[in-house]
Design a protein that fits this description.
elongated, 2 helices, mainly alpha
Length: 72
């Protein structure tokens, strides 16, 4: 069916669907990009720590604020 025969309401609905799909794809791409960056940083830290036995600093256990208060 040619676009000129579609009602204005239907055209707006189609455009909204297209915009929503684009936003969803953009969010997925951004999420993938962030994960890849995080993985890259982790790989870099692991390479820099090799052959030392210490894991990357952010993976070290730490006391939560509530735990510190209970310990004191």
């Amino acid at each position: 069916m040619p676009h000129r025969l579609l009602s204005l309401h239907k055209q707006v609905e189609i455009l909204n669907d297209n915009v929503m799909q684009h936003k969803k794809e953009s969010k997925e791409a951004e999420s993938k990009k962030k994960k890849e960056e995080k993985d890259r940083k982790l790989d870099e830290e692991i390479e820099q720590s090799f052959p030392a036995s210490d894991p990357p600093s952010y993976s070290q256990p730490h006391n939560e604020p509530d735990e510190k208060e209970e310990d004191e």
